[in-house]
Amino acid sequence: MVVRWRGVAQPKALALFIPAFGDEMNQTRRMVRLTAEALAERGIAGCTFDLHGTGDSSADFSQATVERWLADCRAIAARVSSDPGVPLILIGCRLGVALAAQLTHDLSRPAAALIGWAPVLQGRAQLSGLLRAASVSRTQSVDTPGSDDARSRWAAGETAMLAGYPVSPVLAEQLEAFDAARAPRVASVTLIDVRLPVGDVPVAPSEALRKRAAAWAAQGVATEVRAVAGAGFWNVADLVDVPELVEATVAAVEQIAGGAQGSAQGREQGSGQP
After folding, report:
1. How far is CA 196 from the centre of its chain?
2. Which range (103-112, 135-144, 177-186, 255-264) has the least confidence?
3. N or C end of the chain, less CB within 10 A?
4. Does one domain contain both 112 and 44?
5. Do 20 and 91 touch, CB atoms closer than 8 A?
6. Are 57 and 131 in contact (CB under 8 A)?
7. Residue 115, number of CB atoms within 10 A of its CB
8. Are 269 and 57 in contact (CB under 8 A)?
9. Which residues touch 157 (CB under 8 Å, ≥6 apart)?
10. Which pLDDT tens digit goes with each residue over 91-100?
């Protein structure tokens, strides 16, 4: 399934939302919609889609792999960003940030920027979270496979059910190896952590995220890392909104779109000179 938002005939930019993993994708749909609608009101088009085996995809999750998801990302990006006059801005959510970072190296026309929501930049972190949840469920129900059972199944070449999703040994292996260590091929990156405030202490990005931002900056990519106050909307029983995340994303996209348009106009003026 592909969903698009287009507020004007000629948008200032296109924001392509790269989905989160598994049920986190379902939980984040509302925040994606709220942000895309806010961007459309400002003349910026938006698009999101379901990765292979997820959401309304016709495939089963047991067929999902990281490689197939990256292929999906490449296909959608090529489909929606055919106009070279419209800057492409990638907005990844959770593991979608790592997918987006890899995607930037696979695009024939470079993306202008990457914005990451509560980034999960290593597949093993996502897999570990699933295994921990399975271990907790195991203590509550003898019918639920634990992390040891899952790894045994994968070793035997079998699929394991984790959080209601059939995770194949291929997907588990690819998640374990997936790491967005290489800086994205974009002009700028904005990583936005979402943290619950404690008292009056201002929220701050995690140490791990700050280190990854510093590593990308050391590779020559301007990388900003910040935090906004809010609940983990990707993993809560009831849907919650994080207005500060919407506002921060809209502000970042508008700044990127404005800068990209200014650069394009400058090139046009320069090419018209004798």
Report:
1. 20
2. 135-144
3. C
4. yes
5. no
6. no
7. 27
8. no
9. 169
10. 999 999 999 9
Q: Taking the CA atoms of 204, 208, 209 and 213 in sequence, report the sign of the dihedral they define.
A: positive
Beta strands in the chain (DSSP E): 2-5, 13-18, 44-49, 88-93, 113-117, 160-162, 165-167, 188-195, 222-229
Which pTM does this prediction carry? Answer: 0.91
Q: How far apart are CA 181 and CA 219, in angstroms?
A: 10
Residues 173 and 80 grouped into a single domain: no
Please write the tens of the pLDDT for every residue from 101-150.
999 999 999 999 999 999 999 999 999 999 988 877 666 665 555 557 89
DSSP symbol at 142: T
Q: Which structural domain, as residue segments, surrounds residue 168?
A: 123-177
Cα separation, 216 vs 219, whole angstroms:
5
Query: Lowest mean pLDDT: which of 6-15, 151-160, 163-172, 175-184?
Result: 6-15
Write out the two tokens for 273. 């000179």
